[in-house]
Structure formats: C-alpha cells, structure tokens
Amino acid sequence: MKKIIKNGTIVTATDTYQADVLIEDEKVKAIGQDLSDVYAEVIDATGLYVFPGGIDPHTHMEMPFGGTVTKDDYESGTIAAAHGGTTTIIDFCLTEKGKTLKNALEIWHAKSEGRAVIDYGFHLQIVEANEQILQEIPAVIEEEGVTSFKVFMAYKNVLQADDETLFQTLVTAKDHGGLVMVHAENGDVIEHLTQEALKAGNTDPIYHALTRPPELEGEATGRAAKLTALADSQLYVVHVTCKEAVEQIAEARSKGFSVYGETCPQYLVLDQTYLEKPDFEGAKYVWSPPLRDKSNQEVLWNALKSGELQTIGSDHCAFDFDGQKDLGKGDFTKIPNGGPFVEDRFSILFSEGVKKGRISINQFVDMVSTQTAKLFGLFPQKGTIAPGTDADIVLFDPNAERTISANTHHSAVDYSALEGMKVTGQPVTVLSRGEYVIKDKELVAKPGAGKFLKRAKFNSSQTNQQEVTPNRS
Predict the structure, then answer these.
(1) In the prediction, which pLDDT does 1 show?
(2) Which one-letter DSSP state was computed for residue 452?
(3) What value, to the nearest 5°, has the Cα angle with vertex 413 and ends 264 and 280?
(4) What is the pTM of this model?
(5) Are residues 248 and 222 in contact, defined by beta-carbon separation less than 8 angstroms?
(6) How large a percentage of the chain has pLDDT more than 70?
(7) Does 32 score more than 70 pLDDT?
(8) How far is CA 195 from the centre of its chain?
(9) What is the 3-state secondary structure (H, E, C) of 9-77?
(10) Is the pLDDT reported for residue 188 higher than 70?
C-alpha cells in the first residue's frame, strides 16, 4: 500500500529539511511539500526525525564460538535490530579450512532463510588463501553478491590467519572489487601473554583485557595498513577500540591509502573497569578486542567527528551469562567472547553523540547508515532518503527517554551490558522497503519479511558516488 509520511524532519548525511515522503512499490517515489494521494496511508511524523534505516555492518547471528552458539538467531536478532532502528545487517559467515566458500554460504543461507524481519547480507571469512579459495573469491563476488571478506589476525589456532593469507586476500580483492576486513590484534603475542597469565593463576575476567593490551591492536592495525598499501588494495578495520589503532588508520589515510575504520557503541560508553566486577560479573563484558582505559573514549569520539573513523557497527555477538559466559569460570579463556548491542547502537550514538554535541545529526546518519551503504555496495539503494531508494525509513523521537534493560530489550540473551543506562531518543516506527516492521514501537513484521541482499563491488560507481540530493519541489 502507498504511504505518505507527513510533518516530519528528513535527515540525511548531508541535509536536514521539512518535507513529505511518498512511498510506493517498496521505493521512495517522491519527496516534496504537501504531497497527496487518495490511495495512500498518511503517517503523521510531527515532532519526529525521518532517518534512513540504520545499516549495521557487523553482527554475528547464530554463530558457533568456543563450544557454544550465539544466543540470537536471524529471527530474534533481526527483531532486536529493527526495534533499534536498523533495517539492514551484514552478518559474518564463518568458513572452515578445507571447505569451499560456497559451502559456508549455503550453511548461512540455511540459517537465515525465512527467519529475518529486515534485509541482510553476508561477509565471508578467509581462513586460508590456497589456490581454490583465491579462485573462488571472484566467483562469490560476481555470482553471490558477497563483496567483503574478513581475515582474523587473532584467535590463534582457532580463527587466526597468517600474513600471507591477508596479503593474498588483499591482492585478490583489489583485482576483483572486494573489500577486505580485519580483526586487528596480534594473536601470536596474545597467545603468549595468555599462557603466562594462566601459569601464574590469573584466571579472572579482567585478565582477558590485560592479555590483549592496546599496543597489540595498534601493531596489527599498522601491519594490516602497510600490507594494504603494498597491495594497493582496500581495508576496513573492524571494532577499533583505542588510540594506538586510530593513529595507524589516520596515518594510512593521510598518505592516501584506502583504509577505513569502524568502532562500536560499547567502546564509546564502557571501559576496562567493567571486567573487574565481582562474582564473575566481569564476564558479561568479555569481548575482543577488550574494553580499554576510559581515556580512549574521547579519542574514538574525536576520530568519528574528524572522519578518521567512518562507521558504527554493533559487533552483536550475544551469549547468555547463565549457561554460556559461565563456561569460563576459573579460566577467562573459556568465556565466550561477545556482547549484545544490535538494539542499542542507534540510540547510544544519538544520545551520547548528537544530544551531547559530540557529532552533528548529519554525521550521525552518515555513521549509522550512509557510509556503511557506500563502503559495502548498497548505496544509493540504501543509506539515504531520495527518489528511487528503498523505503527503509525510521521515524525517531529525539526526546523520548528510556532506560536500557534486559527486562525490556528484544534480544534473546539474558542480560544487557548497558543495564540501567539512560538514553534520549528512540525509534517509534520502522519501515523496510515501505512495509512496517515496527509500528508505534510494536513488532508487526513476520519472520521471512527480510531479503538477502546481493551487493555491488567496492570499486563500482554505485559504491563511490556522492550523496544523492533529493528533489524538494
């Protein structure tokens, strides 16, 4: 059914203005003043911002890790995302040595088919760069529309790949229009420090952070950036946490290299002291890279404002405290790494960023939606509001106040790492391709409403074009 959004304030990465939005056949049909259509449902957005739907570039739904599986699947995870103003996720698809990339994609398609309430895409992990895998990368880019590939530089003997694998992936991606992503920590040194801690009887959750110091994130980020420059390729550094990594990204970008960075809401508002909570409560805050000293928060905010970091991902990787996190009692290395953030990514950045004057409202949209769409081959189909774009739209109340709690969130996980935090700003209604997912804060979409997205190549004209300027006639 046609819809007209009236009386709201449209906000994109470049513009803020009052106009009506006409939606028809999943698309934004027109933007202008006093639009009318007798067959259209009128949605009153008085007092609300009209944002493009959020795009979360970093989630882990139904992902096996550490002998267990993340709590949120594609149904509960995308429901939580939608309540938080996200209309697209790009999820990580893990691969296995000795098996094809297409085999991994088949597994993840089976997990997601008919489950998601919002649109989604996949990143593929590269764990080895043998001849078969390097030949398969161009095929999955062309045929599957999977155009981003993650290499882990940490989790030795589990997920970690070597530098040759990273370099060969960078070269292949350059030749075929892929974007290489890295988890940047020095896994070899982390393994040594971890074993030393265990030998000394240091087993509490805080040692997860103490054995993964920021210097090792900075070193790995710099190494990856230099290999990217050597390959003349493109790199996206996920979940940047600290000054050491920001400095390496900024240096690479100052030299003209195609290096991009993402941070996450948890690193903007939480710090390392949370891992010191007594009675094993610190395990709720175990993820990698770990939380850092509080001084890094302002570094990250400044990097977002200056453009040294471009995007905000949730790194949603939810494990129950009871029954999953507690696998690591007596041994911090057995605590499943990850936390639940997909539902609160949007509100935290608005409340702590826009409301507190750290970033502008247009920068907010750029970080939570537009830049991700551009980097990952979804722009201008998604990531903005303009005639012809997908009608992925969030009606957002900038003055609504709420307290984050596991009692009210929509994730399947049994705790919130942000329990008790007060935020200002909340999605009220969320549309995906013109259809309601959330209406007046209530879920109305059914599982399976979301579609798998085939994405454009990194170096396509679609990916790199500038923000579309809407017709405001």
Answers:
(1) 84
(2) B
(3) 80
(4) 0.96
(5) yes
(6) 97
(7) yes
(8) 31
(9) EEECCCCEEECEEEEECCEEEEEECCCCCCCCEEEECCCCEEEECEEEEEECCCCEECCEECCCCHHHH
(10) yes
Its sign, for the CA torsion 336, 342, 345, 347, is: negative
Q: What is the pLDDT of residue 459?
A: 75
Q: What does the pLDDT read at residue 415? A: 98
The C-alpha torsion from 263 through 268 and 271 to 274, rounded to 10°, is -100
The CA-atom distances, in angstroms, between 211 and each of 29, 38, 206, 223 are: 53, 64, 9, 20
- Residues 355, 424 contacting (CB under 8 angstroms): yes
Q: What is the DSSP string of 311-372?
A: EE---B----TTTTGGGGTT-GGGSPP-B--TTTHHHHIIIIIITTTSS-HHHHHIIIIIHH
Q: How many residues does the chain have?
A: 473
**Residue 116 Cα distances to 109, 121, 353, 391, 399, angstroms:** 11, 11, 29, 17, 29
Contact indicator for 52, 12 with CB cutoff of 8 Å: yes
Element counts in the chain: helices (H) and strands (E): 14, 21
Look up tokens 């698809």; give the residue.
Answer: 93
The pLDDT, as a whole number, for residue 71 is 98
Task: Let me know: does 154 contact 190? Beta carbons within 8 Å.
Answer: yes
Q: How far is CA 197 from the centre of its chain?
A: 32
pLDDT for the residue numbered 272: 98
CA distance 444 to 163: 47
Q: In the numeric block, which tokens belong to residue 14? A: 């470049």
Kindly list the distances between the CA atom of residue 440 and the CA atoms of 83, 262, 293, 425, 433, in Å, as whole numbers in the listed order: 10, 31, 39, 14, 17
Identify whether the C-beta of residue 107 lies closer than 8 Å to the C-beta of residue 61. no
pLDDT score of 310 more than 60: yes
pLDDT in tens, 51-60: 999 999 999 9
Mean pLDDT, rounded, for 297-304: 98
Query: For residues 115 and 78, is the Cβ–Cβ distance under 8 A?
Result: yes
Structure confidence at residue 460 (pLDDT):
65
Angle ∠(171,172,175) on CA atoms, nearest 5: 90
List all residues 6 or more positions away from 314 whose beta carbon is below 8 Å from its beta carbon.
56, 58, 59, 264, 265, 341, 342, 344, 345
